[in-house]
Amino acid sequence: DMPKSTSPTSSSSSSVHEEGRPRTPQDPLKRPKMTSRKSSGTIIVPREHPKVELGEDDEEFDEDDARAMSPRRSSQDLEKMSQDARAQLNEHAKVLQKSLLEIFNRIEAVKEEHDKLDNNNKFLQKYIGDLMSTSKITSTGASGRKK
């Protein structure tokens, strides 16, 4: 705990503004005084700690330390990992290409079926149109005879 200062400025109003008027944008919040801020003592390393320099091979960690569980990878390991990743990507690309080709073939088949049905539809419309026109002729001729 720091000793409190007895000067009048240290107890200046940081939370209560003079004359009790509300704060305005021209009157920004003041930074809290040192005594009201929380200590950051947990992250401070004491100076008495001896400075230890380790070489790359000298590092030793506890079993629970994450660095001990995942050791540094050599360039051969990294090369093998990148080759494996490339192989996986190539396999994935082949699967996607095969899938795309199947979709394309399906689209072609549906398109052919659509064209065939469209032609049949046009033929039927023409046929029905012809039937209607001939039936009009025969119906007017028949009714004419009845009279």
TrEMBL record:
It comes from the Eukaryota. Residues 16-30, 74-86 have a biased composition (Basic and acidic residues). Residues 100-127 form a coiled coil. It is found in: Cytoplasm, Cytosol; Golgi apparatus membrane; Golgi apparatus, trans-Golgi network. Residues 1-86 are annotated as: Disordered. Residues 1-15 have a biased composition (Low complexity). The keyword tRNA-binding does not apply. Its main location: cytoplasm. Positive regulator of amino acid starvation-induced autophagy. This is BZIP transcription factor. It comes from Hyaloscypha hepaticicola. The lineage of its organism: Eukaryota, Fungi, Dikarya, Ascomycota, Pezizomycotina.
